[in-house]
User: Fold this.
Amino acid sequence: MLSLLLIPALFIVYNIKEININSITKPSLSWNLLYIDQIKDIRKNILIISFFKFSSSFTSNGLAIATITPFLISINKNTFSYESIIILAGIVVGFRWLADIMFGLIFGTLSDKFGRKSNIIISAITMLISIIIAVSNISFYVSVFCIILMFFISVSLETSLDALIGETAPEKEKSSIISRYSTWQDLGAAFGPILGFVIGSYFGISYGYIFSIILIFISLYLYLKVFKITTSLNN
Assistant:
C-alpha cells in the first residue's frame, strides 16, 4: 500500500523546481543553526537554550537509549544473564517514552507554576547527580534506578527549555527559530549513539556518560551565567 505513495511523491519532486520559496518566506531566510540573523542578545540566549537542548537530547534520546545494553552489561558483575539484561534494557528504554506520555503535562504545569529558571536548574542538577551515581556503579539496582530517573527528569528539563525558547524567540520569527532549535535536538539524538560508541570503544562505555555530564554541566553554567542578568524573560 505504501508503494502507492510513490506516484504523488514523484509528481511533487518533479514539480518542486517550480515552487518560488520567496513567495512564501522572506528573502532573508536563514538556515543557519547559530542564529546569526538575530540581534546579539537574543541570539546569545537562543543559542544557549539550543545547546542545552542538544546536551539533554544527546544524553537521554541518543546516548542512553543506544548504549543502555552494553552499559548494563558493563555493570552487571554476573548478577543477571545476557538474556535478562537485554529484556531489562528494553524495559528501561520503555520508561523513557512512558515519561514523555505520563509526565510531560505534569512537568509542564510545574514549570508554569514555579518558573522556567527554577525548573531548569533543579532538573539539570538532578540529571547530573543521577548520571554520576549511575556510572559510579554503587550497585546494579541503584544504577538502573538512576538511569530511569534521568529519563524522567530529562522530560522536565526539555519541557521547560521548549517553553523558554517559545518565550525568547521574536514573535514574527518564532517558527523559523523553533525549527532550528528542533534541529539541535535531533543533532543531539544523532551524535549521542555515535560518540557514545566511539568513546566506549576506546575508553569504556561509562566514559560516554561522563562526556554527557560535561555537556550538561557546561550548558547549566552558561545558562546560569547569561540568564541571571536577563530581565526580559518570564522565568
